[in-house]
Amino acid sequence: MKEQPRRIAVLVADTLQSVGLQTLLSDYFAPVEIESFASYGEMAAGTPESFDYYVMPAETYALHADFFLPRRQRVILLAQQCDDRPGANVISVSCPQEEILGRLTQIFAQADRADMPATPGRELSAREVEVLRLIVRGRINKEIADELSIGFQTVLTHRKNITAKLGIKTVSGLTFFALMNGYVSADEIRQ
Amino acid sequence: MQLYKSMQLGGVIHEYPMLIPIVGRFGIRLGVGEKSIGEIAAEYGVDADFLVMVLNTYLNESYFPEQKLRLFHVSQIVDYLTKTNAYYLKFQLPNIEKHLKAFIASSPKNTRSLDMLAGLLDSFTAELKARIARDTEVDFPGFLALGRQCAGGTVGAGAMGAGAVPEDNAELLLADMQNILIRFLAGDYNENLCYAVIFALNSMERDVRQHNRIRHRILYPIVEAMRQNAGR
């Protein structure tokens, strides 16, 4: 169970749907902090990356995939039809309330499990993320040392730690990881 | 378990089916009846000692009788590695591609991440093909020519030092692809097809590792020793 409240962005233009969702989330999944937005643009004007979850129709997700794709495990999609696939982060607005609650419970439980690192201390540190971003942008060790104003040996240590934590050794593999986790964009890699 | 020429090949293959492609590289087909490894080798005109060595090398990563392997002719090793290369291109790569394609098709929610994984496979394929092209066009013909110049094409026991096996990016890419699936796959996916992809990647990684050991610890030191002999 999370001690901190879940921060949830509800990006739903339909007022009744939005209010209904906020009520269910507040009543059954406390503690939560919910902000509602009528559009993506409204959310993007603030601090869009600060939320733990984003609830929206599939169209909004598709239109703003650049932002949501790296956060896809935190996205809850609203569908008109019931979706029985286990594990899919989809809730149907036409399902009975208890089914919607059951699906939300599953989604939050799954995300909570994903939050727990397999081994304590396996998350990349902020500095390791910086090094990773430069590696996948094609910088060699000396360039990384210069750009981050750290020693050459320190770069090597960071690289060793990144590989140990992720189990990924090649630049191609690290690029995949960085893209999928939103550490870099495809455009940055092409630079 | 260590294999010997007197052992029944059918029983060995039943116990270790991963050896099927290895015996296949020697031209040996299934339908081996009750015959021993030695009898089957004679039937197919294969050097039984070399066959047993390669099977043992593949089966036990700690088994590597370098002194014995060095007594084989350089052409035998080049021939085996050439057939290994051909097997990668003809069977193992298409097998991984086929399973990954089916896996991607069955996982619509993960399409982008799996497409990127397919991109990693492309990197691996390009790297492997470049190496095989170099083997085929430059290195192996050169090694065979050197073998013809040197008496017998062998260098004898104790004539050289053991070569180190450097990190191979192609092998690392295979390991990375498996790790990415095992550690970072998320959302809805077809477990059976995912297992098929990982199994195919793992089989090839294991094969490439043995290939690299034979290449770096046997072939290259033999070639280096032959070059030194030829230079005398």
List the main descriptive attributes of the protein structure presented here.
heterodimer, A: Rossmann fold, Arc Repressor Mutant, subunit A, 2 domains, B: 232 residues, mainly alpha, 9 helices
How is this fold's topology laid out?
The complex is a heterodimer of chains A (191) and B (232).
Chain A: E1 6-11, H1 15-28, E2 32-37, H2 40-44, E3 53-57, H3 58-63, H4 65-68, E4 75-79, E5 90-92, H5 97-115, H6 126-136, H7 141-148, H8 152-166, H9 171-180, H10 186-190
Parallel strand pairs in A: 1-2, 1-3, 3-4, 4-5
Helix pairs in contact in A: 6-8, 6-9, 7-8
Chain B: H1 9-15, H2 20-24, H3 37-44, H4 48-59, H5 66-69, H6 74-105, H7 111-149, H8 169-184, H9 191-231
Helix pairs in contact in B: 3-4, 6-7, 6-9, 7-8, 7-9, 8-9
Q: What is the chains' assembly state?
A: heterodimer
Class inferred from helices and paired strands of chain B: mainly alpha
Count of beta strands of chain B: 0
The rounded distance between the terminal residues' Cα atoms of chain A is: 42 Å
Q: Major beta sheet of chain A, specifics? A: 5 strands, parallel
Any idea of the CATH topology of the largest domain in chain A?
Answer: Rossmann fold
Helix content of chain A: 40-55%
Radius of gyration of chain A: 19 Å
What does this structure look like?
The complex is a heterodimer of chains A (191) and B (232). With 191 residues, chain A is an alpha/beta fold. Chain A folds into two domains: 6-115, 3-Layer(aba) Sandwich (Rossmann fold), CATH 3.40.50.2300; 126-190, Arc Repressor Mutant, subunit A. Chain A contains ten helices and five strands; from the N terminus they run βαβαβααββαααααα. Chain A has a five-stranded parallel sheet. In chain A, helix 6 crosses helix 8 (152-166), helix 6 packs across helix 9 (171-180) and helix 7 (141-148) crosses helix 8. The model of chain A is unreliable at 116-121 (pLDDT under 50). Chain B folds into two domains: 9-63, no CATH class; 67-231. The longest helix of chain B is centred in the last third of the chain and has 41 residues, at 191-231. Chain B is globular, with a radius of gyration of 20 Å. Classes of the chains: A alpha/beta (191), B mainly alpha (232). Chains A and B meet through helix 9 of A and helix 7 and helix 8 of B.
